[in-house]
Amino acid sequence: MTKVLVVDDEPALLRAVRAALTARQYDVATVGTGQGAIDAIALGAPDVVVLDLGLPDIDGIEVCRRVREWSDVPIVVLSADGAEDRKVQALDEGADDYVTKPFSTAELLARIRVALRHRNHDAPAGDDAVLAVGDLEVDLARHAVTVADRNVDLTPKEFAFLALLARWPGRVLTHRTILQEVWGPEYGSESQYLRVYASQLRKKLDDDPARPRLVTEPGVGYRLVDPASDGG
Amino acid sequence: MTKVLVVDDEPALLRAVRAALTARQYDVATVGTGQGAIDAIALGAPDVVVLDLGLPDIDGIEVCRRVREWSDVPIVVLSADGAEDRKVQALDEGADDYVTKPFSTAELLARIRVALRHRNHDAPAGDDAVLAVGDLEVDLARHAVTVADRNVDLTPKEFAFLALLARWPGRVLTHRTILQEVWGPEYGSESQYLRVYASQLRKKLDDDPARPRLVTEPGVGYRLVDPASDGG
DNA sequence: ACTAGCCATCAAGATCGCGTCAAAATTCGT
DNA sequence: ACGAATTTTGACGCGATCTTGATGGCTAGT
Description:
Two copies of one chain form a homodimer.
Chain A: E1 3-7, H1 11-23, E2 27-31, H2 34-44, E3 48-52, H3 60-68, E4 75-79, H4 84-92, E5 97-100, H5 105-122, E6 130-133, E7 136-139, E8 144-147, E9 150-152, H6 156-167, E10 173-174, H7 175-183, H8 191-205, E11 214-217, E12 221-224
Parallel strand pairs in A: 1-2, 1-3, 3-4, 4-5
Antiparallel strand pairs in A: 6-7, 7-8, 8-9, 10-12, 11-12
Helix pairs in contact in A: 2-3, 6-7, 6-8
The structure holds a DNA duplex.
C-alpha cells in the first residue's frame, strides 16, 4: 500500500487530509514537527511526503534540505505563504511541488498522484536511506558507517566520498566526478585530495590490501567492489 | 544546453518567458499551436515543455495525453483557468505541474528547475553501458573487460584502445584514428604504439592466432571481429 | 631468391601516478 | 580566544605503465 506522511501542526487540517487520503486507500502517517518528519521519513520510508512549512520547531525548508541529503522521496509543500521567493526557495531546496493554502482536496490529491508517478519512474527499486555494499553499510540519514557490524568513525569529507561511491556499487567514478561532487564544482583536478582520502578510508575501513573494498582504477578513478555483481 | 519548448499563443507572454529563459542560458524554442507542440516535441526532443492550456487548435490537456503516449518529457502547464477539476484533469493526463496565471517569472523558473531535476534523476539510474562483441564484453562504467566471462586486467591505454574498437564492432579504425582517440590529437603517426598494444591486448585477451578477435588490416588499421555480422 | 615495407614480439629505461606520512592551515565548538 | 578536529599542502618512495629501440617474421613485388 502507498504510504503518505503528512507533516502539519494544525489538527483540523491533519484530520481533513488524513480522511481524504484514507478514503482513497492510502496508508497515512502524521507527525506535527520537523524533527518528527525527518525521523519518520528515515524510519518509515514513505512514498510521498506532504509537508506544511509552518512547523513549530524547524523551518519546513530546512526539513527539505536535510531530507534531500539522503532521500529522494517526493515532497509536496503546503503553505499559507504565497510569497514568490518562499516558493522558489522551497522548490530549489528539494520540494517537488508547492501548494498555497487554501487549496482543494482534489488538487492536493492530484498533485500527490503526480509525485507518486515521478517516484515510480525514478526509483523502481525502493530507495533506502541505508546503502549496503557487501559487509559495508552507509546510513545516509544518520551519517553512520559500519563494516561487518563494526562502527566506523568518519570525517564529513570521508563520509561524502564513501557515500558517493556506495551509491554506485561496482561502478568507477572518475577523479573529476568525485572531486566535483564532494569538494565542489571548482575542484576539478586536485586529485591529490583523492589519494589522501582514499588512503585514510582504507585505513579506517580496515581494508585488506590484497582484497581492498576501495579499488583504484589507475588513471581513471575509484570504485567500491560490489560482491553482489562481481568478485573483484 | 538545456532545451525548453514554450507553447503559447499570446505573443506578449511568449516574449516574456523567452527572455527570462534565454537570460539563464536555456535554449528556447516556441510554438503557438497544439499540433505544433506535438511536432516540436517529437522532432526537437526538448528537456522540458511549458504548455499553455488555451491553444487555438487542440486543447492543452489533449496535447498532454497524446504526448504521454510516447514521451516522458516533463510538462509544466500554464493556465488562466483556476478551476480545480481542470487542474486535476491536466495533472492526471500527464502534466507534471500546473501554474495558474498570473504567475511570477521566478516561480515558473523554479518549477522548471524542479522538472529538470526530476529528469536528471531518471537518467543515471539504470544504464550500465556494456559493449558486447561476441564473447567479449567491455563495461565502460566499471572499466572492466571480460572474455567468455573471464575477467581481464587491462591498463588504462589498453582499455581505451579496446573500448574504442568495441564501439565500432567489425569496423576498421585507421592508425591515425586510434592514435588520436587514445593517445591524443598530437599523436598521428606513432603507429609503433599500436603494434605494441595490439600485441599486449591479444595476449591478455587470449586470442587464438588462427582466429584472432583483434584483426590487423595491413597498411590501414585494426578492427574487432563481430560474429554477429561477419565470420572473420 | 632477394629486397623493401609492414608487422609482432621482447626487453630495458624513463616516466607517471599512486600511497603514505607529516606538517601547516583552516574550521569549528566551547 | 583557545584547543581539537579536520582539511589542505608538500615531499618522497615505489611500482605499474608507457615509451623506445632492437630483432625477427611475413608478404608482395622484382
